[in-house]
Structure formats: structure tokens, C-alpha cells
Amino acid sequence: MKYTVSIEIAQPRERVAQLLADPAHLPMWLRGLVLHEPLNGAHGQVGTRSRVVLQMGQQKIEATETITRREPADLHGIPKDSVVHFEREIVSQGMWSAARERLTEAGPETTLWVSENEYRFSGLLMRLVGLLMPGSFRKQSLQHMQDFKAFAEQGKDVREARI
Asked: Where are the beta strands (DSSP E) in the chain?
């Protein structure tokens, strides 16, 4: 299954890239994040593998994330016409996914974030989930992007909504 989602963020591209790359900010916009810890390497750097735990309703999902691309490596002084790329693979029981994120300038103070996602399922249960609920994956990706937008533009923290 493949899909693409996008969103405009009213912040300069360099600022958006820096916020996305900073592990300290992940809990503020990545809804359901319980843990994100590097198993090797440095957070966000190519080749780094991390253990990721997400709480989704009553279910805890554990996965391994591998960073496969980050361009440019230095997120300061990014050339005006270049595109920022973040790519990763995530593997969990019964599922493999890849996310290819691109940040481009949509205007002087606006960033377009485009996320291409691909999922492959193994095992009967995950194949059924993929067949019966394909829209839920797209909806979740868009929710994460909307949460990030609210964090980047207004400082909203998704943890403050939990009551």
C-alpha cells in the first residue's frame, strides 16, 4: 500500500527541518510516543537504528526505525533552492514501512511538507488490517503532520490534550 500526504506549515523551511530533527521535540507532536531511543548511532543520522514504542488506544506497538537518508546532513544554512529529505524504514511484527519526507519552500516563511509512505504486511492479521483499513494509515500520517504543524506554528503540545 502506498499513499502521499502533504501540509503547509507557516514557518521557514530551515526551522521546520530543525524542529523535525530534534528528538527533544518528538513527544510534543508525535501523538502516542512512549519511547524513541537510538540502539546505535546518533538520533536522526543515516544508519542509526532506534527502538520506537507507540501507544495507540489499548495497543502498544514496538518497532525498529532505521534512518536511510538525511539531506543535507547539516540543517543550518540550507541553500534556498535545495530540498530537505528525511527518509526512514520502520519494521514491527507483521509490518514494514518506509517514509520519504520532503521539505520545500512554499513561500518566504512557509514550508511544504510532503510525505510519501509505503507499507508491506506479513502475517494474516496485518494483511487483513491493511486490506480492511487502508484509510486509517493515511489518516494517522495526516494527524501526525497536523499535530506537528500546531506545535511548530503555535507551540501546542499533544500531551496537554490528554485529560
From this structure: 2-9, 33-40, 49-56, 59-71, 84-92, 95-107, 110-121
Distance CA 4, CA 116 (A): 4
5-48 tens-digit pLDDT: 999 999 999 999 999 999 999 999 999 999 999 999 999 899 99
Would you report the helix, strand and coil content of the chain in percent, each value rounded to 5? Answer: 30, 45, 25
Model pTM score: 0.89
What cell numbers appear for 17 in the block? 527541518
What is the residue type of 25? H
94, with CB counted inside 10 A (0-12, 13-18, 19+), is middle
What is d(CA 76, CA 78) in angstroms, rounded to the nearest whole number? Answer: 6
